[in-house]
Every structure is written in structure tokens, then in C-alpha cells.
Amino acid sequence: MRSIAFADFLIGVGILFVLEGLMFAASPAWMRRAMKSALATPDNILRIVGIVSAVIGLLLIWFVRR
Known about the structure:
mainly alpha, 3 helices
């Protein structure tokens, strides 16, 4: 079983920054509205969305690295 190297982690973080930066560059007004919407969303909904996103991400990584 191969372990995930720290370099892979940094590449993932880099891709995250690239995608987020592209979203802000392409449509700053939409991102501003999305952030305002997140502020108005109850904590429990944000928590559920975060957990589901994390699980999907882990499953995707597991599937690709398998």
C-alpha cells in the first residue's frame, strides 16, 4: 500500500488555490454573492455540506489512488 506523499498534499492545496482564484477572477460579483449567502446559511447546514464534501473528496482520492 502506497502512502500519500506530502508533495501530493501540496499539489492538492495548489490546485485548490488555482480553482478558487480562477472563480474570483472570472466572476467576483458571483463570488461575493456566494459568500453573503454562506453568511446567511445556518451553521448546521454548512457543517453538513462540509462533511459531505469532505467524504466525497476522500472517496474520490481513494478511488483514484487505488
